[in-house]
Amino acid sequence: MKRRRIFVSSLIVLSLVLSLVFEAFVLPDNAVNAAEEKVVSLKASKLKKAKANTDIIYGGKKLSKKGFYVVGKYYGDEYEFIYVPAKVFAKKAGIKLSVKKNKVTLSKDGVKVTFTIGKSAYTLKGGSETMKESFVKSVKKNKTLYVPINVFAGLLENTGVATEYYVEYFCDKTEIVFNAMDSAVVSGGWADTETLEVPVAVRNYFTIYNADYQNDVKIVPMVCIKKQIVAGTNYAIVCRVTRPEGKEEFGVAIVYVDLQGDVTVTDYGTSGIETNFNGLDGGWRASDEFEIDDKVKTAFSKAMEGFVGVDYKPIAVLGQQVVAGKNYCVLCSAKGVYPGAEEAYALVYVYVGFDGSAQLIDIAEFLNKKVTVPDDDPVIIGDPEPE
Question: Least enclosed by CB within 10 Å: which of 120, 141, 301, 310?
Answer without folding.
Answer: 301
